[in-house]
User: Which sequence fits this backbone?
């Protein structure tokens, strides 16, 4: 009984440690949207070019997910997360001294790769410590930490700007929290139960030299249901980053004519994201009884409706717009908590890291492709409002694609490789 109690305590400790570290990871990438307006002015570039800088980070992140998800199935998730955090802090500080478009573009792309060293390894660590029956809850908490990370980043960024501090400090000050969190995580976390003296939940997992990295990719990439799920996540992520990058521009531009008070309305977006992630993790287990496809589809349809409401709301009515922002964050990001448990459910336990990595590759490739397009919409229209009409269409596409995945056959991959 004591051993069970101790394991339960350490199980929660590992989840909370991973959540704490990821709580500050976005200080190294969601700070960009708040720097975009002043950066564009200082560098003399268009919003479309700002979109390409944002896309460079997302392409770097996508490539990193494809690589690091696989590596997380072979190496220590704990060490990968800490290394990624330290490199991201360094890249952010270096960017703060940038004075040219190319310099910032290249460093922000590298930062995307460094940032990619956390999510899939963290998913691998959580899967090592939590059994299938509680994964929805565990990943819901994990995704909530990611959503809360946006809240932390938005809050710190607003405080920096309201105190008249120039944009380079958006890349210097917030990442200090990430540095501290990485140190705490390294001291507390362990990659799997056996490193704390417990039996591993899935002793036949990682460190399987008989399964090559190519074989892992082969098994995952031929699974049609998994690929459709990844495509749906791609559209969801395009909508999510459309909000995270361009909502600050929206509030700093058209809406902020009413004064700095309106900036605080934008904070409701990441708050909605954090609460949505937590809620959808529980909803998929308790209300939809593990039917994560239905939960995702419902969320994305409601997200599309909310985007249309933002589009139709007069920009000067930022108070009502802030309420819609909360709901947009809730319904756009909440379903992400339901995507990650689908990786082990579709692919089997042996391919969690590889699967999560490829899912996130799809997510960030789509997000990267969307950024220059959304920036061009702002340049062409002279307003950020039409962006939300485009995001509504993207949310509909996510809902439709996840529904298609439910019609794909469910291949058994557990026994494909022994």
Assistant:
């Amino acid at each position: 009984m004591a051993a069970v109690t101790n394991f339960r305590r350490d199980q929660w400790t590992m989840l909370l440690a991973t959540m704490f570290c990821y709580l500050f990871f976005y200080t190294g990438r969601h700070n960009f949207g708040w720097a975009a307006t002043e950066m564009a002015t200082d560098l003399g570039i268009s919003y479309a070019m700002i979109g390409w800088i944002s896309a460079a980070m997302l392409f770097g992140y996508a490539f990193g997910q494809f690589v690091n998800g696989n590596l997380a199935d072979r190496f220590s998730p704990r060490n990968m997360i800490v290394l990624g955090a330290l490199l991201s802090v360094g890249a952010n500080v270096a960017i703060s001294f940038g004075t040219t478009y190319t310099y910032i573009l290249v460093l922000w792309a590298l930062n995307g790769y460094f940032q990619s060293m956390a999510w899939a390894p963290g998913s691998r660590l959580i899967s090592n410590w939590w059994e299938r029956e509680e994964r929805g809850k565990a990943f819901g908490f994990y995704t909530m930490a990611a959503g809360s990370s946006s809240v932390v980043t938005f809050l710190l960024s607003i405080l920096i700007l309201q105190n008249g501090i120039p944009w380079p400090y958006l890349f210097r000050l917030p990442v200090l929290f990430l540095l501290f969190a990485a140190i705490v995580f390294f001291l507390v976390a362990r990659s799997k139960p056996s490193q704390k003296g417990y039996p591993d939940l899935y002793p036949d997992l990682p460190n399987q030299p008989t399964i090559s990295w190519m074989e892992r990719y082969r098994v995952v990439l031929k699974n049609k249901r998994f690929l459709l799920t990844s495509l749906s996540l791609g559209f969801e992520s395009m909508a999510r980053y459309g909000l995270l990058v361009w909502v600050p521009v929206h509030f700093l531009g058209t809406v902020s004519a009413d004064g700095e008070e309106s900036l605080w309305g934008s904070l409701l977006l990441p708050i909605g994201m954090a609460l949505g992630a937590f809620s959808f993790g529980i909803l998929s287990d308790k209300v939809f009884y593990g039917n994560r496809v239905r939960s995702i589809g419902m969320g994305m349809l409601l997200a599309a409706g909310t985007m249309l409401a933002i589009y139709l709301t007069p920009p000067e009515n930022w108070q009502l717009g802030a309420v819609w922002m909360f709901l947009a964050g809730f319904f756009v990001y909440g379903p992400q908590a339901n995507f990650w448990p689908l990786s082990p459910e579709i692919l089997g336990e042996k391919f969690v890291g590889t699967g999560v990595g490829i899912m996130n590759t799809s997510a960030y490739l789509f997000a990267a492709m969307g950024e220059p397009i959304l920036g061009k919409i702002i340049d062409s229209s002279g307003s950020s409002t039409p962006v939300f009409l485009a995001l509504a269409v993207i949310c509909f596409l996510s809902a439709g694609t996840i529904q298609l995945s439910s019609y794909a056959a469910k291949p058994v991959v557990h026994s494909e490789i022994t």
The longest helix spans residues 352-381. The CA atoms of residues 208 and 416 lie 14 Å apart.
